[in-house]
Design a protein that fits this description.
Blueprint (H helix, E strand, L loop, with lengths): L2 H12 L7 E5 L7 H10 L2 E3 L7 E7 L7 H9 L2 E12 L9 H10 L3 E7 L4 E7 L10
Parallel strand pairs: 1-2, 1-3, 3-4
Antiparallel strand pairs: 4-6, 5-6
């Protein structure tokens, strides 16, 4: 494995992906960062597509400005995972085709009920925003 591939795999682990997870990938197209995607796929148990009809452990969501409504995409993603699951939102970096404003990401995440933990570069063209679904205990009524 190359040093770059090692870096991508360790980055996938640092972001919260683990072995034996089923990760649902949404928004895959030929413009994704293939090296990072391959690293996630190698690390986890299974990388499944949008047609997967069971509950996943995490979501890898590739999203571009013209892909529709980000809030809707995030709400849909939360319905596919367990409580306290990782949703990794990948968007093109500043100045790239499909770039999504950080304020739009923050607003959409908040509206979807997600906690935004951090953003990090995952390749030359893509940035990742780590989002986490709330734990059921945190959803208790007052």
């Amino acid at each position: 494995m190359s040093a770059t591939a090692d870096h991508a795999e360790s980055l996938a682990a640092r972001l919260g992906f683990q072995s034996e997870q089923v990760v649902q990938e949404i928004g895959y197209d030929d413009d994704v960062d293939q090296e990072f995607r391959d690293a996630v796929e190698e690390l986890v148990d299974e990388l499944v597509d949008e047609e997967y009809d069971d509950v996943a452990d995490a979501v890898l969501l590739w999203f571009r400005e013209d892909d529709g409504d980000l809030t809707d995409a995030l709400v849909d993603a939360t319905e596919l995972v367990e409580d306290a699951a990782l949703i990794l939102l990948l968007t093109p970096k500043t100045g790239r085709d499909g770039y999504v404003e950080a304020s739009d990401i923050s607003e959409a995440a908040e509206t979807a009920g997600l906690s935004q933990t951090r953003s990090i570069s995952v390749g030359k063209e893509w940035a990742a925003t780590k989002l986490v679904t709330p734990k059921t205990a945190a959803k208790t009524k007052r």
